[in-house]
Amino acid sequence: MSELTSASPRPRSRPAPALQRVLAHGRYETRNTLRNGEQLLVTLILPLLVLIGVHRLDLISSATGGIDALVPGVLALAVMASAFTGQGIATGFDRQYGVLAYLATTPLGPTGLILGKAVAVLSVIMVQLVVLGAAGLTLGWSPDPLGLVWLLAVLVLGAAAFTALGLLLAGTVRAEATLAVTNVAWVLLGAAGGTIFALDHQGPGVLLLLLPSAALGEAARAAAADGVFAVVPVLILASWAVLALLAARRWFRWR
Amino acid sequence: MSQQPLCLSLRQVRYAVGSARSAGGVTEILSGVDVTAQPGQVTVIIGPNGAGKTTTLNCAQGLLRPSAGTVELLGEDPYRAGADLRARVGVMLQDGGLPQAVPPAVLLKHVSRLHQNPWPLDDLVDRLDMSDFLTTGIRRLSGGQKQRVALAAALIGDPEVVFLDEPSAGLDPQSRQVVFDLIEQLRDQGRGIVLTTHLLEEAQRLADTVFILKDGLVVRHGTVAELTAAHDGAHDDAQNGTTGQRADGPARRLVFVSPRRLTPEELHAAPLPVQLDGAGANQAGARWAVSDIADPADFGSLSSWWQHIGLMPSEITFESRTLEDVFWEVSAP
């Protein structure tokens, strides 16, 4: 072991600029997500299999309204996977292992940590958009050009709502419980919560349209297929985002 | 104690969990802790399990907001401070705080990017002998290797103040030596080191100042020499004052091994306070300690007592009082 130099005035330790810190953490979390086999399975491979599988089984004509309705639904499913399941599980285990507490003591701090996670979620969503969008186009998806802008806005809002829900869960219960709940909820909401398959707008089942998954699916389909900014689903989704953010702010525990 | 500028100051810090409305009520973890630390010194906090050591560190690091009292870290309130303060402080948490899925190289490079002038990673890897496992996932590392990664993560920002919670836990003797040497070098560079430990030999070797916590209070503090002195020169915080008299050196104590159990009457008749050494039991072969043997007359009176009760110790040794002795005195119920 070499000796340290003797006592002398050292330059004061300084933090990197704030934007650089947030982007660095965003890159770090994105890398971890895309190199983690389980995360990759949930965020990309399973949505891709759903897209190809539902399309190949020819269910789309009767259940999803065609490939133009299926692709936005699968994109919504993918956003739920990265924002809710992925972030929830990763944050839950980071909390359990004290990683959140450690990073909160670095120049990143709690605020930088949350912003960095947001950058990571958006980065993963961009990858999902490219991969799943390309697969959809190959299968014949022909989205409304203006609707793509609305779709992007809806997916970002959905990411905010589901990230807040994932963090709320990760910050309040044990990591193992977060793992179980986010996975089960993702499957249930994806299959029967109005994400991939549109819900019936008649009868008592209409209440299911208040689910964040249904709001995200409805708004995404309206944007991509019809080029419409669906106000009611967007308002429902925004309400979920605000409520989940407030709840996470109130109950999230760093350790 | 010398009047140098402080890098850390906790004044009458209290920390409680729970609420009056909850079933468990309010539990006070810290009941008015006073701790200070100076640059270029190693400040060690010791105490039994549950004494409040980690909570004290967490308040000092800004991870917890005290219920009452003030905390100043490098002149700022760490709970409210921003990135400028956090860049000057390195933290090693008791549970490591390490992500399990990434290799040490990825974590350390990431944290170094949060600083403008980080410690060169290659140098840190060399000092802590981490090159063999730098690209292995942290979950696959041994406990000692994880400890070294956590220490590197605390130092990567080249901090002025370093908090180390049980830095040598799980380390083999060789790795422990590496960590001890590094801590001493950090001190010599003028950094302030605040650490907790259960290893009292470690504390005795490294500490410039020791704070002993018990039940959420600092019950004694001072230099090792003050704490182990014949006439206790340490600050007896529990009695709300100082005993004031500085000692010239550590007290001598006598330890004898009894070939049989001692009765309460025999112990009552002892001319000086006789206590079981450490956590031993009153039985044949027990080690008994007599503190503050400062005069040949003390030894004479002990010899008379042995004669009176018909006891021939199987072993008699003189030892200097250690921090462990002080710890046991303070920790006694």
TrEMBL record, chain A:
GO terms for molecular function: ABC-type transporter activity. The keyword Magnesium does not apply. Residues 54-247 form the ABC-2 type transporter transmembrane domain. GO terms for cellular component: membrane. The chain crosses the membrane at residues 40-57, 69-93, 114-141, 147-170, 177-199, 219-248. The keyword NAD does not apply. It is found in: Membrane. Keywords: Membrane, Transmembrane, Transmembrane helix. It is a multi-pass membrane protein. PANTHER family: NODULATION PROTEIN J (PTHR43229). This is ABC-2 type transport system permease protein. It comes from Garicola koreensis.
TrEMBL record, chain B:
GO terms for biological process: response to antibiotic. It is a peripheral membrane protein. Residues 8-240 form the ABC transporter domain. Its main location: membrane. InterPro entries: AAA+_ATPase, ABC_transporter-like_ATP-bd, ABC_transporter-like_CS, ABC_transporter_ATP-binding, P-loop_NTPase. It holds the Pfam family ABC_tran. PANTHER family: ABC TRANSPORTER ATP-BINDING PROTEIN. This is ABC-2 type transport system ATP-binding protein. It comes from Garicola koreensis.
